[in-house]
Hints:
The chain is an alpha/beta fold. The protein has a single domain, classed as Alpha-Beta Barrel (TIM Barrel). About 40% of the residues lie in helices and about 15% in strands. The chain has 8 helices and 10 strands. Strand 9 (about 225-230), helix 7 and strand 10 form a beta-alpha-beta unit. The longest helix is centred in the middle third of the chain and has 20 residues, at about 120-140. The radius of gyration is 18 Å and the shape is globular.
Amino acid sequence: MQLSTVILPLERWGASQEKWRRAEELGFFAAYTYDHLSWGRLQDRPWFGAVPTLVARALATSTIQLGTLVTTPNFRHPVPLAKDLLSLDDISNGRLIVGIGAGGLGSDATVLGTEAWSAHERMDRFVNFVELLDQLLEHPLTSREGPYYSAHEARMLPGTLQRPRPPFCVAAAGKRGLGVVTRYGQGWVSVGRSSNAEQSCFDAVSSQLRRLNDALDGAGRPRSSIERVLLDGRNDETPLVSVDAFVDWAGRYQSLGITELVIHWPEPDSLFEFDMSTFEKIATEGLAQL
Length: 290
């Protein structure tokens, strides 16, 4: 099992660069950031763009994996996004992970002046988005017509360092979304929530993993070919209150087959306001106690 962190892009580079260097020093497998223009309860606080944030972090580190968790079609088009990802993969020397999802409601869904998409249209767009992004990153020249996203002689030279492209870690729970995972994903990610408000995070993830395994079996893909990622911090669990709490939490999800846990870097005055010394102890000692 791997342990990673997600660092919110809340501060100017001069103040935040030490967090990313420290994440590498603590031995985290990957450091992610959210790809939003603003986010939830923090929408009135400073918030920086994901791609330039990751470029700066790539130059400040040397071994830790870096990625989006997750990027969505809400305000992205596959062609310029692919060019940005190609560049980021190069600058990071092949350390990029592309976390990708369908997106949701909230400010990002309407920031471009359009009405929020229906759930059906959102999924249609997501499928088209990932299909085209995959083709763009794998080929030097792409022309493809889609119902929402198209490319005409889009050039992606010299190509990504990672071949055939950087890994996609896909956030999905429903049938069509899991179809995207089985066709294009090297990883699957969950935040442990479901439409049933009374269902615990553990039960939700258990159910989602069963559906993921069924989808992989149906597609003829080995179950071991997909990394299983769980993002903590927005559900009913509190694994960062102590090392013992983390070990209990991590052990339960390891038994389910989760292969990577992602915990939020502590942020004052937010829902991720955790004790930093406990967080660092979890980072350095937690997994060793499993």
